[in-house]
Design brief:
The protein is an alpha+beta fold and 229 residues long. The protein has a single domain, classed as CNF1/YfiH-like putative cysteine hydrolases. The protein is 24% helix and 26% strand. The strands form three sheets. It has a six-stranded mixed beta sheet. It has a four-stranded antiparallel beta sheet with strand order 1-2-12-5, with no helix packed on it. Strands 9-10 form a two-stranded antiparallel ribbon. Strand 6 and strand 7 form a beta hairpin. The longest helix has 11 residues. The chain binds zinc ion. Zinc ion binds next to loops.
């Protein structure tokens, strides 16, 4: 079953987060609509605002997103300040991120290495700042670990140039790897957020989520968040 978190803020409001697991089924936005709607209802009530994820840095307000997958605009971050409005991202190796704020709006984002390099974390923190909120913490869902994420050396150089040498990891078989947790941490610190929590394990060698890399799975797990109504 999905794991849920409740985070109470200084103004008395509560942020609710849920990370789905493989046992909760497929949350790909193009999954068969009736089944998807039923799975979403079980995890969090309300019409989920989702986007078509493209490994970029664009952030949209849930108010500007229609409910259907066919109409989902291309973006990788979603923000809302409306209590009760669920906002969600999907993943299979890439990381789902929840942006916890002191007051007002919250956000979620989908971040793989291309998105991190494109500046998705900066972009979301900026969108929240424009709406008067400061990010106090970023909670990260299942993400592929370095032990499972063999990476070409040219691409690794590119990510290291953007986010620092800590992104260089080693796989369990001793080949060069991308350390996504280090890359996410560097991007968050770069955006002014030092408190980063990795709440879930590796998508590839753990049971938490789907893995495109390890098992060629087309399905997606979800991170959904809302300000409690
Ligand atoms: Zn792993």
């Amino acid at each position: 079953m999905s794991s849920n978190r409740r985070i109470t803020r200084s103004d008395g409001s509560t942020i609710e987060l849920a990370f789905t697991e493989r046992s909760d089924g497929d949350f790909h936005i193009d999954a068969e609509p009736e089944g998807l709607a039923a799975r979403r209802r079980e995890v969090m009530d309300g019409t989920w605002a989702v986007v078509r994820q493209v490994h970029g840095a664009r952030v949209l307000d849930a108010a500007d997103i229609a409910g259907s997958a066919a109409d989902a605009p291309e973006a990788d971050g979603v923000v809302t300040e409306v209590p009760g409005q669920p906002i969600a991202v999907q993943g299979a190796d890439c990381a789902p991120l929840a942006f916890i704020t002191d007051v007002g709006p919250i956000a979620v984002a989908h971040a793989g290495w291309r998105g991190l390099e494109a500046g998705i974390v900066d972009s979301v923190v900026g969108a929240l700042a424009e709406r008067g909120a400061t990010v106090t913490k970023i909670v990260v869902g299942p993400v592929i670990g370095p032990e499972c994420y063999e990476f070409g050396s040219d691409d690794l150089d590119t990510v290291a140039d953007a986010l620092g040498e800590t992104v260089r990891g080693v796989t369990s078989s001793g080949t060069p790897a991308l350390n996504m947790r280090a890359a996410i941490t560097a991007a968050c610190i770069g955006a002014g957020v030092d408190d980063v929590e990795f709440a879930r394990g590796c998508t590839a060698c753990g049971d938490d989520g789907y893995s495109h890399r390890a098992r060629q799975e087309p399905q997606r797990h979800a991170l959904v968040a809302r300000i409690a109504p």
